[in-house]
Design a protein that fits this description.
Helix content is about 35%, strand content about 25%. By secondary structure, it is of the alpha/beta class. It has a single domain, classed as 3-Layer(aba) Sandwich (Rossmann fold). Helix 3 packs parallel to helix 6. About 40% of the residues are buried. It binds adenosine-5'-diphosphate and magnesium ion. The site of adenosine-5'-diphosphate has 16 residues, from strand 2 and helix 1.
């Protein structure tokens, strides 16, 4: 809820939850990306040989510098590459054991994966209420849609207060809540979030973080793309680090938090224990920008 009196501390969560849900087997994770190759416009390499798994019930973080390929990976999973002159040139993507490689976006939403796109895109001219409705297109049933919308208003009370507002008049944080709410309208089993904290004030980032935890506790598996590595590592079970279109590192989030390379590149902590800005580290040691 907005303005909850308790904000969970920015420490790691217990990783006692099983990596896979009771109905899945270890060989059949909710999301399985294998040896994925993506190219933009025939020439530009987007991803090379990316393999990643998300087990049912997990929060998995995907970290990486600007231009590393995080958005590209989400686009590949949700079928949106085609709208960006991109294509999958190798590898497979499976959702709940079903091959969704190159499937159409609406098919993938029906299969249970919904994405909150980078830049919290909402329809600014449309009301909050209508924005939420657009996320429910696959549901068909009007009554079910209205019921689901009420659940979103419970999750995000500020959206209920502003249900008749044009979305363009919402604050950045409220627009992000609306974007998340819209994605949740299809009751996805997997929610993919692309940098939900980007450009938001620290207090709002804390709220968004709490919402992600709440959504997860309600039974949604989460793949969280973030440049805010501290935030992402604080709530995820495992994490992957993308670098230049390849997975450079993966492991339990608690371990990555203690890794000197991750600390230097993504957490703004140098090995001597002093603090450097992310920008300093990036310009000094990394050339992975676009
Ligand atoms: N539509 C596009 N056409 C060509 N190249 C693109 C396009 N979108 C992204 N890229 C390139 O693909 C690489 C990965 O970008 P992206 O997935 O957006 O990275 P991230 O989300 O990690 O910042 C970058 O080099 C970027 O310039
Ligand atoms: Mg991106």
């Amino acid at each position: 809820m907005v303005g909850r009196e308790t904000t969970r501390p920015m420490v790691g969560r217990e990783t006692t939850r099983p990596m896979v849900g009771p109905d899945a087997t270890a060989a059949d994770p909710l999301l399985a990306v294998a040896d994925l190759e993506v190219v933009y416009g025939r020439q530009i390499r987007g991803l090379r040989g990316v393999s990643l798994e998300v087990g049912s019930g997990e929060i998995v973080a995907l970290l990486g510098a600007n231009g590393a390929g995080k958005t590209t990976l989400l686009r590949a999973i949700t079928g949106l590459l085609r709208f960006h002159d991109g294509a999958i040139t190798g590898g497979r993507i499976r959702l709940s054991g079903r091959d969704i490689t190159d499937a159409a976006p609406n098919v993938i939403v029906r299969a249970g994966a919904a994405q909150v796109m980078e830049g919290r895109r909402v329809f600014g001219e449309m009301t909050v209420e209508d924005n939420l409705a657009t996320g429910a297109i696959v549901r068909g049933d009007r009554r079910a849609m209205a019921a689901r919308r009420e659940e979103m208003y419970e999750l995000f009370p500020v959206l209920a207060e502003r249900r008749a507002w044009q979305a363009g008049y919402l604050s950045g944080g409220e627009q992000q809540m609306l974007a998340i709410g819209r994605a949740l309208m299809s009751s996805p089993s997997l929610l993919l979030l692309d940098e939900p904290s980007l450009g938001l004030a620290p207090l709002i980032v804390e709220q968004i973080r709490d919402f992600i935890i709440e959504v997860h506790d309600d039974g949604t598996t989460v793949l969280l793309v973030e440049q805010n590595a501290a935030m992402a590592l604080s709530i995820s079970d495992r994490a992957y680090v993308l670098q230049n279109g390849s997975i450079a590192m993966t492991g339990p989030s608690a371990r990555l938090r203690d890794d000197p390379t991750v600390q230097a590149l993504y957490l703004g902590i140098d090995t001597e224990g002093g603090r450097r800005s992310y920008r300093d580290v990036r310009s000094g040691t990394s050339g992975t920008g676009s």
